Amino acid sequence: MSSRELILGRVRRALADVRRDDGPYEEAVDRGYLREHGDRSVGRTVGLLAENLADYRALVHRCTDGELPELLARLLAGRGSRTVLVPPGLPPHWLASADATRVQDRAESTPHELDRVDSVVTGCAVAVAETGTIVLDGSPDQGRRRITLVPDHHICVVRVPDQVVSSVPQALERLSPGRPLTWISGPSATSDIELDRVEGVHGPRTLEVVLVGG
């Protein structure tokens, strides 16, 4: 008897006295939970997102669409970034004022090549106010998942209020489970048994989020 047959046999014996339920799966569990906590205006929802992002040690900036190129140029220059990784669908005007050399998102790029890049700039799919989370789904303005995990500095642009929702259930409605989803709550961080925090272990050490309105 193979290991597979042995395991399946044990499963069948365990289920032998379980009553068969032919009801629809979606009715098996009551899912009448809250879709969001509280009743907030759009402005308060965006404010909550900014507050929770900052609580996770992300650096939060606000600007209008017209101010975005100058702001991105200042953020890159302030960090001393000489190279910036660019997803294929990033709007060209975003980096029109930046002096950093553009590095394209290429399938053949090695982890060592990506590690030599100073910064990466992306858009996002959606941002969740209640958890201070930004979600990437690999769309053209976000690129491959790895380009936001290897470089040490990530600038993520969030369009407000269009890309901001209150809760995770609302975010899931906007996302496709067939896409490579990356959920980011602050810069990469972990801690050892003594609770000493270490940043940049499995993602960027510095996360900057730009909330763009107007």
UniProtKB/TrEMBL annotation:
Domain of life of the organism encoding this protein: Bacteria
Listed InterPro entries: FTHF_cligase-like_sf, LUD_dom, NagB/RpiA_transferase-like
Pfam family, one: LUD_dom
LUD domain ranges (all copies): 98-212
PANTHER family associated with the record: LACTATE UTILIZATION PROTEIN C
Protein name: LUD domain-containing protein
Higher taxonomy: Bacteria, Bacillati, Actinomycetota, Actinomycetes, Kitasatosporales
